[in-house]
Design a protein that fits this description.
The protein is built from nine helices and 23 strands. It has about 425 residues and is of the alpha+beta class. The strands form six sheets. It has a five-stranded mixed sheet with strand order 3-2-11-6-7. Strands 4, 5, 8, 9 and 10 form a five-stranded antiparallel sheet that branches. It has a five-stranded antiparallel sheet with strand order 18-17-21-22-23, with no helix packed on it.
Length: about 425
């Protein structure tokens, strides 16, 4: 963790900072596409979950069913409005593969654990509540987050006007509370030869996912709490599986069954839906761990700098391999880099907030970041990612498939007029 002084010292040591504050505000040019900021809704300040009527961050616009952003399969977190690292449950991204949350009475819900075990169990929510619990801070991320497309599936390109909510909004971070899966497996007694778990949800589609037993014994949770309260229905109420650091599809919501088996089931989302198809016809299967990633949230796409002066470049970094150890910021398109300050505490497999003071001189600039995790893996450029995957750079521009696990560096171009645009391509 970078400890080169506090944000206050960094601010005060720059003589131009104070003078620049009067014109140094970042304004969202279009934070919520289609929303009318002048329409301030009345509310009851004492009602549960109500914010100030002047706050309008949302994961959706218009009527329910119309996606915020540019995708056609999920609601996205407004990262441009985020502070700290914890995502409020009401702003947590949602991907449910087209199924509405089932209306589950927790008094009637059951979790079955069976298969290659000595003592199969059926657990009620009360049973789970009696067991030792843990609380951990972890991110969740859809494998398609930050994929280079800006329209419905098939329109594989990034629009310069794309905002961070549109490009990176399929990730959120929460404190999750529940029972370690390792504890449950100890209770049932895993038999020799077992190597995988099959987790199954209660929604109409009965989503299932195969997960290696080794990961289950490491850090999996059967979670019933999020940020100090019960899960929201769209987040799996009353019970979900939490698989820290791995792509979101593994985190089965509305969990009702865990079966211990000797091999993966190769379900639809393992064999056809989620492998990343390459241009040579081959595919990348079982992409579990999310690689190191970082992105500037302010200033970012769709926002506008109101004039030259001091700005705090801030954003989020995370990695499925563990804790973030370093974030570097470039204001000249990657020609030079400076270490950002990491805000603590830095949790493993969780969002980490970073910041770096910057005096904008009014000229064009390209802002970008790269993160390094505790394993020493560094976030790649898009050119480096193409070499790692053994594909041509054009693959990311032309493919009609969703590119999973895309963790290339995200550049934002600041124009002379202060406008900030997406500069990935």
């Amino acid at each position: 963790m970078n400890s080169k002084g506090s944000g206050r010292r960094r601010f005060l040591k720059d003589g131009a900072a104070l003078a620049g504050l009067t014109v140094g505000a970042v304004r969202a040019a279009s934070a919520i596409p289609g929303a009318d900021a002048s329409e301030l809704r009345p509310n009851d300040p004492h009602a549960y979950g109500e914010r100030s009527r002047f706050e309008d961050s949302t994961i959706r616009i218009g009527s329910l069913g119309r996606w915020t952003g540019i995708s056609d399969f999920g609601f996205r977190t407004p990262l441009q409005e985020s502070v700290g690292v914890i995502t409020p449950p009401s702003l947590h991204y949602i991907v449910s593969h087209g199924y509405d949350p089932p209306d589950i009475d927790p008094r009637q819900h059951r979790l079955l654990i069976h298969g290659m075990v000595d003592r199969p169990l059926i657990l009620t929510m009360d049973d789970l509540g009696r067991l030792p619990s843990v609380s951990r801070t972890h991110f969740l991320e859809c494998n398609a987050n930050s994929a280079p497309f800006s329209g419905p599936a098939g329109a594989a390109r990034v629009a310069p006007t794309a905002t961070i909510q549109q490009t990176h909004g399929l990730t959120s971070c929460s404190e999750w509370t529940g029972v370690p899966v390792s504890l449950l497996l100890e209770k049932v007694g895993v038999q020799t030869g077992a190597a995988w778990l099959i987790a199954e949800g209660s929604e109409a589609g009965e989503h299932t996912k195969s997960i290696p037993l080794e990961k289950a014994m490491d850090d999996l949770l059967v979670a019933y709490g999020q940020n100090g309260e019960a899960l929201r229905p769209e987040q799996g109420y009353p019970l979900r599986l939490l698989v820290p650091g791995w792509e979101g599809i593994n985190n089965v919501k509305w969990l009702r069954r865990i079966k211990v088996v000797d091999k993966p089931y190769m379900g639809m989302r393992e064999s056809t839906k989620y492998p990343s198809l390459r241009m040579d016809g081959k595919a990348r299967w079982f992409q579990f761990e999310m690689g190191p990633k970082s992105v500037i949230t302010r200033p970012s796409g769709g926002q506008r700098l109101t004039g030259p002066g001091f700005y705090e470049i801030t954003g989020l970094a995370w990695s499925g391999a563990g804790a973030i150890r370093r974030v570097e910021v470039s204001t000249d398109g990657g020609r030079s880099w400076k270490d950002a300050e990491l805000q603590g505490p830095v949790h493993p497999k969780a969002h980490t907030r970073f910041g770096l003071g910057w005096n904008w001189d009014g000229r064009e600039a390209v802002l970008q970041t790269r993160s390094t995790d505790e394993r020493g893996e560094v976030q790649p450029t898009i050119e480096e990612l193409a070499k790692i995957w053994r594909v041509e750079l054009d693959y990311f521009r032309s493919t009609s498939n969703i590119v999973g696990h895309f963790n290339a560096i995200q550049p934002w171009e600041v124009g002379r007029d202060g406008s900030v645009r997406n500069a990935l391509f």
